[in-house]
Amino acid sequence: MRHAIALAARALGSTSPNPVVGCVILDAAGETVGEGHHQRAGGPHAEVHALRAAGDKARGATAVVTLEPCNHTGRTGPCAQALLDAGIARVVYAVGDPNPQATGGAATLRAAGVDVEAGLLEAEAAAGNAAWLTAVRTGRPHVTWKYAATLDGRTAAADGTSRWITSAEARADVHRLRAECDAVVVGSGTQRADDPHLAVRGPLADAGVRQPLRVVVDTDGTAVRPGARVLDDAAPTLVAVAEDAQAPAGAEAVRLPRADRGLDITALLAALYARGVRSVLLEGGPTLAGAFVAAGAVDRVVGYLAPALLGAGPAALTGGGITTVTDALRLDMSEAVRVGPDLRITATVATKEH
């Protein structure tokens, strides 16, 4: 199953709005006779790739899958039926399918006499599919807030300079995060200060990864100026403006209701979801990050901490609707690793106790 989870992860950023899925076929002796993963939306599912690799050896074998085999016909046929047609005798899957249109594969397999087991390494597999699972369960995109700061939590110096707080290795790692998501979002402050490009660059771009949608939250329609780097043809761009604002020339725009000191974050996420966005990388500054936190719309935090001190300058987060320590947004840290000289910390929003 861990190998199946690793196989699924190969396609992060390539399968949306579908999940990432990995499958391994084992013969009676426990030897791998086929494996595969879902590579792109509209293409064969993981089980089909693995069954093709296994051929006749699939008959009487065990299929180990990260997600419950689907039970519906969309752009491809139902995987539950494909497993039955191949003669699979046992299916072990990690996560049940919460999509009401696709669920029921386990029941179909059991009804046909297949031995089915659920829940193996469920938490690990669910973590790898967090974006898709969040989107299916909540009807909004999964949001990862990424920031870079010094050890004393400053994202820029007192004079506003911020290039470069973290290392080239950390900045390269951010392009991996961009490649794994459907949209990258910044606010007007970041747009004015940095004129960011927001597209995937470097080796991943050279390899032809799908570029994310670049989104600028420009409430008053004044931050995205002619010639801005987000207006080039490297990736698609969407500018979110208030309903009463003038949209910038040369960019596709979406008009959204105003909220306190900005746009309605729930409406923004709904508009992105309607466009097929299932995962968002929030790269905006402290004000936009605070608006997302206040809206309860941050699912994961990835912080790059540089071994440096500034003593003054903007903090990573402003606001968020938190006024006392008991209201702190508690996180479950899942990873802390060195990236060049910096430390990358990954954490998810902790489930509140009732």
Notes on the structure:
By secondary structure, the chain is of the alpha/beta class. It contains eleven helices and 16 strands. The chain has helices at 2-9, 46-54, 79-86, 105-111, 122-128, 130-138, 168-179, 188-194, 203-206, 265-274, 286-294, and strands at residues 22-26, 32-37, 62-67, 90-95, 115-118, 142-150, 183-187, 213-217, 237-242, 252-256, 258-259, 262-263, 279-282, 300-306, 331-339, 342-349. The protein has a nine-stranded mixed beta sheet, with helices on both faces. It has a five-stranded mixed beta sheet with strand order 2-1-3-4-5. The longest helix has 12 residues, at 168-179. The two termini are 32 Å apart. The mean pLDDT is 93.
Q: Please write the string of helix (H) and strand (E) elements.
A: HEEHEHEHEHHEHEHHEEEEEHEHEEE
* Oligomeric state of the chains present here: single chain
User: Biggest sheet, open or closed, and with what strands and sense?
Assistant: 9 strands, mixed
Coarse morphology: elongated
Output the radius of gyration: 22 Å
Biggest sheet: strand arrangement: 10-9-8-7-13-6-14-16-15
What's the total helix number? 11
Low-confidence stretches: none
The count of strands amounts to 16
How far apart are the termini?
Answer: 32 Å
Structural class: alpha/beta
Residues in β-strands, percent: 25-35%
Query: What fraction, in percent, of the residue positions are helical?
Result: 25-40%
Question: Mean pLDDT score, rounded?
Answer: 93
